[in-house]
Amino acid sequence: MAETLEDLSTMLEHLNSVSQRVSLKLNIQLVSEDESLQPVCVASVDIWILSVVASEGSAEIAQRAMERAMLATGTMKQRVYSSPINSKEELTERVLGVANDIRNDPEMIRRATQQIVLRATIYAQRVNNSILDFVGNTPLIKLNTIPKDHGLTCEIYAKCEFMNPGGSSKDRIALAMVRDAESGNYIHEDTEFVEPTSGNTGIGVAFNAALLDKKCYIVMGEKNSSEKVNTMKILGSEVILTRKSSTEIARQIKDARPDKVVMLDQFENSVNPKIHYNTTGVEIIEALGKVDMLVCGAGTGGTVTGTGNRIKEKCPKCTVIVAEPEGSTMFNVNGKKHPFLVEGIGGSTVPIVLDKSVVDDFEVVTDEESFLMAREVIQKEGLLCGGSSGTAMAAAIKAARRHNLGAGHRIVVVLPDGIRNYMTKFVTNQWMEAHLFMNPPEHSMRWWNHPITNLKLTHVYPIIIDDFTCAEAIEAMKSENVAIVVNGGGWFVGAVSKDYLRHSATNPTKLPDQKSEDFNFNDPVTMHLVKDCYTLAKNGKKGMPTIGRLSRILDITSFVVIGQKEIDEDHFKPESVVTADDVLEYIYLHTDKQSSAGN
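Now predict its structure.
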């Protein structure tokens, strides 16, 4: 069969260049139902199918290419090819059969030609009117290493949504919601946008607002990465960080000037799942024909709702799996709610746009599993994905095992965003080590593996109750820079530092049309806790921490709170604070000075 395909490839080699010329010609002439153009359409369809078969080089992919062609032109219901191709004659007969199916129906000709024009426009055109032309039509990549390394024989395909121009699947909904608002005449010369978001939709809205030359306000929680915040700022948007409900603050901004401010509202806007139904789902079906399982996370739920419904229309037996972060109760309703580090998916409330009926099952994935898998996808497959992509991939592997998917089964995993948003988080080894997701590197220095209990800490940092004001916290810190904050039971709440209070005073939260106010030192200290405060338990899951691990954590933070885990590790009782000065002093005292001088 290989020789037969090679012969066919030689016979049809010239058709690739002809196909491009015909496609471009059609692109110039545009798609028309004019009968005079039908011979060109028919020829281009034949050439397209044959050139795809010739260029792929395997019977399996040739068969799939014909299925794709028929699906794209509406002929799958008339002719289904499920048996293997065994000869050049049979292959040629089937190819011509597809062409005849298309040739005999003008509507199929028009739809087939649209597919060719679409591909020619995306891949052959050299000049584009806007970067928005590249929203959607993201690559679908077959994974070659990860399935094998995890003992799976099924096929896993990654839908690389991080290759949208703004870096995530949210580019689709942002553009669609803006265009919907434009068509509804909601956007005018003085329009301003406001959007509550965990980051990626904010980037998408900021992206569109910048291209429209409109003012934009993004409201988001403090959990999200600084990379997301800075991306939105460089796009010209004002970012409002809050520990309150971002949706409530966004609505407050909207209600203050209802005729001027547009809130697209991804959580309630039906355009969100609709665009995934019309694009993401279609792209997957066109590429594969048959899908046995779809796996994705759920934030607003737009992706799983729209994509899942579209795929199930074509593949009713497809199983739709949601990747649920451990600590989220959106689907895992009997699970224990607690904070988690993965961004953009999960939660405790079900958004209006989420249709839970399309979801067949869910897989719970821990933060550690998510970030280690994201790193694995990057390292083994070269796909520069984000943390929630790791959640989805880890869920897919679990689901494949649980549902016994084997050879011939196809899983599609949606990778929603990319590495750019997390350079200072899971991409950084020290961050992974700080959260005990990875071990620090091995070194031979004498002090490296010493336990942290060897440190002789001379500084005494104040421990204050969480009902202190900022002014009282400053008084308690005196000559120190940090104070530990606990509740009435002595359990760790967070930490406050003079530097973070300075930061809060310098960068006040300010809503539109409000004046910047002086910092209120009578605010509760809990309103101004250090955002990224690292703790290290002497009895954590990795055992007694070493000074090597502690020193690595201090690469990314100015201090670490040391203490003990209590009550099934749900609570942390702080004991002391360690800074770089403490570790350096220990290193100095435990280094062979003569050996160092000789080197």
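The chain is about 40% helix and 15% strand.
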